[in-house]
Specification:
Oligomer: heterodimer
Order of helices and strands of chain A: HHEEEHEHHEHEEE
Helix content of chain A: 25-40%
Shape of chain B: globular
Shape of chain A: globular
Largest interface: A-B, 56 and 59 residues
Number of strands of chain A: 8
Distance between the termini of chain A: 40 Å
Strand content of chain B: 5-15%
Number of strands of chain B: 25
Distance between the termini of chain B: 94 Å
CATH architecture of chain A: 3-Layer(aba) Sandwich
Number of helices of chain B: 30
Low-confidence stretches of chain A: none
Low-confidence stretches of chain B: 571-579
CATH topology of one domain in chain B: TIM Barrel
Strand order of the largest sheet of chain B: 1-10-7-6-5-4-3-2
Strand order of the largest sheet of chain A: 3-2-1-4-8-5
Radius of gyration of chain A: 18 Å
Number of helices of chain A: 6
CATH class of chain A: Alpha Beta
Helix content of chain B: 40-55%
């Protein structure tokens, strides 16, 4: 039901630097700023989420039809959840096409920064959406777990079609290729567990960079 | 007098037998005695205003229970039950809650659909005899605007407007209490307030800010503290005594309507009623002067004691063919870019003019206002002479806009002033009559008086006006400057309202216009100009503004001026030291390493003039540079975007070499066929590797993304490729690598296979039979060089 297309009043330059693999290097800040600006202009932020009852013991999202989640880590992460939110966000395809256009024109570095800015933007849109869901969840006595996407840990990416179905992502123009890639590419699907207990009091999976096997990633937090 | 609202209703209804999951509003018609009992409990507890049980009784919400067709009946029954319980000992407020959806473009709900739903509900509540309407718990100012406009349309009851704020002091969609107070006051809210989501302690500063920004009464209905979970149940911690403790503080902060929201009970209401009866109500007088404008999340004030407000004039297609053509094509990309760029250049307000011939003005203005508001928080000025376009813009705008402009022409007054009043906009008053521009300052003042008289008759008031002093051309009228300056002075003396004007007209027809313009600007600022309409990119005007602010005391002791000037004297790039005598080949190498694209063409020309051939330049400068960069990258001293900048310089260098020495054969280290495998549409990573290889002397055949194995193998055979580079980013697509490797072997290709991509590992590459795994583009170049040597 709920659609939330968060405004993009800025794109975080620090995160853009990180996604571009720049870490703390000295680099032309104007170029980073103009990549963030161009991404803001080209982005068409859209987001949608749905809430479902969840059978944590059997890892079943009680949609119609229901959906059994595979994977031990996601099962552990959602343990005790009574409900789950399935969400999808995207910044649209224009940015991606412009990244390619800049690269073909020989603006390699700018192209890469624009791609990084788009990644930052889609994460921000997802964060902003979580922020709108949070008061509703809290009002019902729930705490939100951090968002988890197919492909993290041992959650097979082959379950992506179920996330598209249950989040109703197609209504905001997100589709899936046969190889389970989201189109537009700068999109996110994820699940968030709603639990009654305080999340600070439970054992947590490592998440973010710490949970990722790609040890040689240029954007990895050291 | 302090008015006392009731407290939470839902929990009491549940205690009385309402089943979880049932529609709480349906009991208004099915069991009205149940809701009457709740109302009576609150009236006995001391409530002087009770809220009808219609929080979720818009047709949009009732549709969830299949009850949309009962909307009117449910709302009428709710008022009836409340009035029956009140028996004239309490007032009845018709409650209107959120739709549960966001208004476009934040969400998928049409503004007009929300408006219609609230219109229906407000009409039913008012028609059944409610004393107030209360729009509450809203987190989106657009939803609040839709509901308030609808409420004002159907009745003359006082309307209470309460938003909900998060712990950061803003609504979830970004509106702060100051902005809300100004926007809702102008739009005609009678009581402005806050409820839910936080406890009284957290709401105290919000109440204070609201009271400082509007003279309308303030209402507050906190939750019983910040909830926590106990045995899976939400618990609101505040006892009635704790809750009552905060009532006098909320009253002192400016609230005169107090009640409770989630977690409050009749006992809580008794506690605040008791505390309130013992509290003196302070006189509520907001300290507001000047003209206040808002966007969804920002407030800007134009006032003589505050900094000059720049109105950016660049979103205007007049005389700008490219912009006009783009708007005509339906693209707002440049419009949005101007919004961001002008704001960065210092504009505090943005004028929006969509005056392109042959387009639907109304649709264009609406779309521009929506899209700019979604990307920028700078308040907007709607610049049009078309009343329909104006209304479309005002209706869509999630704040309080300025209308540019209202002249003394009767038709303009008649069509624009009611829209300003209805939508809570301020007006830019232009002293032009049907006869044209009055020549003298006195005559301009007289015309302004006429406009103000008509405006006040329509309901506009102090704080709604910005006066334009009008600028004529000195080349045509010797006294043009003097009259404008005099007009500015008279405006301050006679009206006391802030002033504005466009400046550049003054110098029309003269040489060196910037000199005239900036001097004129300084004079106008001294004469009292508050909000110039100008090009914020104009450095000479910005310099004049900065100096004038220091001179006129708007920048105390010239502190901001000093900071600006000091910064400007610092060279932007400390790169000057590098002009050490260097031979040309070393200079080319240094330029590549530093990513300096600008001088590379000239350097290559010099090298060629010195008699160096293509090979020597490539080997000693370009390849040498790339080798150094590779080493630095490997050691973590240089990062990928920097490597790409160097590659861009290499690309320019090679192009120049081909242009200058077309006969010399370009170096060819080997042929590489590159592709992102079938099913995978990532191409940036593959493009980076291709660019780095191409600029390291390899012949590149890039097949693109989503490439079938057969096409890769065919190309490898046909071009006698030395290397096949494959990119796969997903676990679902990397199996394609195995396929390509097998088919290459089967076809007898001698090419080595190099693979890379996010999901890949050395182990996977080995298992698939690839010859090498490259973790990044720099490693790929290194590996490729080794492969062709073997």
């Amino acid at each position: 039901m709920p659609v939330y297309n968060a405004p993009l009043l800025e794109i975080n330059q620090k995160e853009t630097r990180r996604y571009a693999g720049l870490m703390k290097a000295t680099f032309d800040e104007d170029m980073i700023a103009s990549a963030c600006l161009e991404a803001r202009l080209l982005a068409k932020p859209q987001g949608i989420w749905q809430i479902y009852d969840y059978d944590a013991k059997n890892q079943i999202v009680l949609g119609k039809p229901s959906f059994t989640i595979k994977g031990g880590k996601i099962g552990f992460h959602l343990a005790g959840a009574e409900k789950v939110i399935l969400l999808a966000v995207t910044v649209g395809e224009d940015i991606e096409n412009t990244v390619t256009k800049h690269f073909n024109e020989g603006h390699y570095a700018f192209s890469m920064l624009l791609d990084a800015a788009a990644t930052t933007a889609v994460e921000q849109i997802a964060d902003a959406m979580e922020k709108t869901i949070q008061p509703k969840a809290e009002a019902q006595g729930y705490n939100m777990r951090w968002r988890f996407s197919p492909g993290y840990g041992d959650w097979p990416i082959e379950q992506q079609p179920e996330l598209i179905r249950l989040s109703q992502a197609t209504t905001i123009g997100i589709s899936l290729t046969e190889s389970m890639m989201l189109i537009p590419r700068k999109s996110i699907t994820a699940i968030i567990g709603l639990i009654r207990e305080n999340p600070d009091c439970r054992k947590d999976l490592p998440h973010g960079c710490a949970a990722c096997n790609k040890k040689d990633c240029l954007s990895r937090y050291k | 007098m302090i008015h006392i609202f009731d407290g939470a209703t839902g929990t009491m209804l549940q205690a009385a037998g309402l089943k979880p999951g049932a529609c709480p509003e349906l009991i208004n018609i099915e069991q009205p005695e149940m809701i009457e009992a709740v109302h009576r409990a609150y009236i006995e507890a001391g409530a002087t205003i009770i809220e009808t049980n219609t929080f979720g009784a818009t047709s949009l919400k009732l549709a969830h229970y299949g009850l949309a067709d009962q909307t009117v009946k449910i709302n009428q029954a709710a008022v009836k039950a409340a009035k029956k319980a009140a028996q004239n000992s309490a007032k009845v407020a018709g409650s209107m809650g959120p739709t549960g959806r966001f208004i476009k473009p934040l969400g998928d709900l049409d503004f007009e659909t929300a408006y219609d739903a609230y219109h229906e509900q407000a009409a039913a509540l008012a028609g059944a005899g409610a004393d107030y309407l209360i729009i509450e718990t809203s987190i989106d100012i657009q939803e609040m605007r839709a509901a308030l406009l609808a409420a004002k349309e159907v009745c003359h009851l006082p309307v209470i407007c309460q938003l909900s704020y998060s712990e950061d002091g803003r609504t979830v969609t970004g509106t702060d209490p100051q902005t809300a107070a100004i926007t809702l006051d102008a739009l005609g809210a009678d009581i402005i307030g806050v409820n839910c989501s936080l406890g009284p302690e957290q709401l105290l500063p919000i109440v204070k800010t609201l009271a400082e920004n509007t003279n309308k009464p303030i209402s507050v209905q906190p939750n019983a503290g910040m909830p926590y979970l106990e045995n899976g149940q939400t618990v609101f911690p505040m006892t009635p005594e704790d809750f009552g403790y905060w009532a006098p503080k909320l009253i002192e902060a400016g609230a005169s309507y107090i009640g409770g929201c989630c977690g409050t009970t009749p006992a809580h209401i008794t506690a605040i009623a008791k505390a309130a009866s013992q509290t003196m109500e302070p006189e509520h007088q907001a300290k507001r002067t000047g003209l206040w404008l808002t966007s969804r999340s920002k407030t800007v004030c134009i006032d003589r004691d505050l900094a000059t407000v720049l109105i950016g004039e660049r979103i205007n297609p007049t005389g700008r063919k490219k912009l006009a053509a783009e708007i005509k094509d339906g693209s707002l990309l440049s419009v949005k870019k101007e919004a961001i760029d002008q704001t960065r250049a210092g504009a505090n307000l943005l004028d929006v003019n969509m005056g392109v011939g042959g387009i639907d003005q109304t649709a264009a203005m609406k779309q521009a206002i929506i899209e700019i508001s979604q990307i920028s928080d700078t308040p907007l000025v709607i610049d049009t002479s078309d009343a329909a376009a104006l209304e479309a813009g005002l209706r869509a705008y999630p704040g309080r806009a300025l209308i540019n402009s209202v002249s003394a022409e009767p038709e303009r007054l008649a069509s624009f002033l009611p829209l300003a009043k209805k939508y809570g906009a301020a007006i830019l008053c232009l002293p032009i009559t049907e006869e044209g521009v009055p020549k003298t300052a006195e005559a301009r003042c007289d015309t302004i008086k006429d406009i103000l008289k008509a405006a006040k008759k329509t309901g506009l008031q102090d704080g709604d006006f910005l006066l334009d002093a009008l600028v004529m051309t000195i080349a045509a009228d010797t006294d043009a400057c003097k009259e404008t300056l005099h007009t500015l002075q008279l405006y301050r003396e006679v009206f006391g309202y802030p002033s504005t004007m466009g400046l550049s007209n003054i110098s029309y027809g003269l040489p060196n216009r910037p000199l005239i313009n900036s001097n004129f600007f300084a004079m106008c600022l001294a004469a009292g100009l508050d909000a110039p309409i100008m090009n914020p990119y104009d450095d000479s005007m910005q310099a004049t503004l900065s100096a004038s602010a220091a001179l006129l005391g708007r920048d105390p002791n010239g502190r901001a001026y000093s900071r600006n000037e000091v910064n400007q004297n610092v060279p932007k790039k400390a790169a000057t030291a590098k002009i050490i005598a260097m031979d040309t080949l070393s200079a080319i190498k240094a330029a590549v390493i530093d990513g300096e694209k600008e001088g590379i063409g000239a350097l290559i020309e010099n090298a060629v003039k010195e008699g160096k051939d293509s090979n020597e330049i490539t080997e000693k400068s370009l390849t040498a540079a790339m080798n150094d960069i590779g080493v630095d990258f490997g050691a973590g001293r240089v990062f990928l975007p920097q490597v790409l900048l160097s590659a861009e310089v290499m690309r320019e260098a090679f192009q120049k070499l081909r242009e200058l020495l077309p006969a010399q054969k370009a170096q060819n280290k080997g042929t590489v066929v590159m592709a992102t495998v079938k099913g995978d549409v990532h191409d940036l990573g593959k493009n980076i590797v291709s660019a780095l290889l191409a600029n390291s002397g390899f012949k590149l055949i890039d097949l693109g993304k989503d490439v079938d194995s057969a096409a890769i193998v065919r190309t490898a055979i046909e071009t006698n490729a030395d290397i096949v580079g494959l990119c796969a980013l997903m676990t679902t697509t990397m199996v394609q690598i195995d396929k390509v490797v097998q088919e290459l072997h089967a076809a007898g290709s001698p090419a080595k296979v190099m693979v890379g991509g996010a999901a890949l590992t050395q182990e996977y590459a080995d298992a698939a039979g690839a010859d090498a795994y490259a973790s990044d583009g720099v490693v790929a170049v290194d590996l490729a060089k080794k492969m062709v040597k073997k």
